[in-house]
Amino acid sequence: MSQLRALFYLVALSALITLLHKVSKARVALGWPLGSVATRLIHRRACCHAYYYDWGTGSVYAHHGQVLLLTCQFHSGDSKKGANLFKTRCAQCHTLKEGEGNKVGPALHGLFGRKSGQVEGFSYTDANKQKGVTWDENSLFEYLENPKKYIPGTKMAFGGLKKEKDRNDLITFLKESTA
Description:
Elements: H1 2-24, E1 39-44, E2 49-54, E3 59-62, E4 67-70, H2 79-89, H3 126-131, H4 137-145, H5 147-150, H6 164-177
Antiparallel strand pairs: 1-2, 2-3, 3-4
Helix pairs in contact: 2-6, 4-6
């Protein structure tokens, strides 16, 4: 019975996190401060467990720091729409294919699985070099929402894609086009 109860709590917690993540776009959620600082989400007195949601990573932690649940924000999108977004929002600064070289921004060939600040021949800011993020669907999903917030000090002059669907479409296209 306790396993069933634990499963119920995880499902309910996941639904609550999804709802609160949407509310967080307005930067107000039940009076809690938001950002990458872990925020108290639920306190269950019966088991004396406090759960925390880290808005920066999308992780839920128990009071002792063990990861209980990692929410995945990326969902496959429409590659054709992503290609159009790339053409209108990214192509002026980035290339996709091997050997095309860097422009104002670094070449994106081989992007997935690469650490930030690692394209040969491109002059990165210290912030990009030191971020140390490995680019995957979820890190790009967060980054593309607001690059200057994700990597403070970056010189990328792109305001971001606020719509989740646009980010999903662009990332789906990039996965196909940068391999």
